[in-house]
């Protein structure tokens, strides 16, 4: 197996899941990245990172266990510009980094479908893992038999050239956001989201950007989590009024996602947020067409 001193660094993009009405199913990758490095160390090395203290190592060891591979002791570091607890898939960058490091360290031939499945085992759901691995916009569903179906959405040229991220200085824990969701929803709300999530995929694939605002009108999670981000509905309305194609909460929040922002969107939102109780960073970034990749593999 891999000798002590070998290391693998994986570059993984941030993701925005729960995209619009695609709750727990639709996500996209954006051009912010974390780098996950696993370095093989001796089993008794005090610098060894334990799985209980590290999501990448937990994902690495889970992937190995699924395939009967004996994991090695590793030291893990994570660096980059994907902030934690902001609805940008920080945990998925760690999980995907661990899974891809496992493939590189042990020389396996796991394909994309298997990588998504392995990542989902640790992450718990595929809507961040799939776009982090595959890039672009991806629809993903975890089936009852354990398989994960991940299908990239071919976004029409010019339909989504970039997004604007509104990232606050205030974190919201995923567990808190999950706890805000109801145990059930009215049938009419389920129909509302099912229709619009289909519209969202079709609009992106065909370039019908005039339909995006209606397509992201969610009833399943955003209304129930609105209290976690002060004034969120007013901010989203201001984004739409500025000429942007659409705006929604990113993941479980609190980051907000503006699709195809207009020329004046940043200025309008900066003015709107000037008196907000939180401080916000506005970042205009392109979609990340390419998923995670091993950036560096250093032999011992």
Structure description:
The protein has 2 domains: 6-153 and 288-298, Ribosomal Protein S5, domain 2 (2-Layer Sandwich); 162-284, Alpha-Beta Plaits (2-Layer Sandwich). With 300 residues, the chain is of the alpha+beta class. It is 34% helix and 23% strand. It has 10 helices and 10 strands. The chain has helices at 55-66, 90-106, 112-123, 126-134, 174-179, 187-206, 212-215, 222-225, 232-241, 265-272; strands at 7-16, 26-40, 74-80, 137-142, 148-153, 163-168, 246-249, 256-259, 280-285, 293-298. Strands 1, 2, 3, 4, 5 and 10 form a 6-stranded antiparallel β-sheet that branches. A 4-stranded antiparallel β-sheet has the order 7-8-6-9. A hairpin with a 5-residue loop joins strand 4 (137-142) and strand 5. Helix 1 crosses helix 3.
Question: What summary fits the major beta sheet?
Answer: 6 strands, antiparallel
- What structural class do you assign from the helix and strand content? alpha+beta
Radius of gyration: 20 Å
Provide the helix percentage: 25-40%
The H-and-E topology, N to C, reads as: EEHEHHHEEEHHHHHEEHEE
Tally of helical segments: 10
User: Into which percentage range does the β-strand content fall?
Assistant: 15-25%
Distance between the termini: 11 Å
Number of strands: 10
Contiguous uncertain segments of 5+ residues:
none
CATH level-3 fold name of the largest domain: Ribosomal Protein S5, domain 2
General shape: globular
How many domains in all?
2
Q: What CATH first level of the largest domain would be assigned?
A: Alpha Beta
- Mean residue pLDDT: 95
Identify the CATH architecture of the largest domain: 2-Layer Sandwich
Keywords: Amino-acid biosynthesis, ATP-binding, Cytoplasm, Kinase, Nucleotide-binding, Threonine biosynthesis, Transferase
Function: Catalyzes the ATP-dependent phosphorylation of L-homoserine to L-homoserine phosphate.
EC number: 2.7.1.39
Domain GHMP kinase N-terminal: 56-136
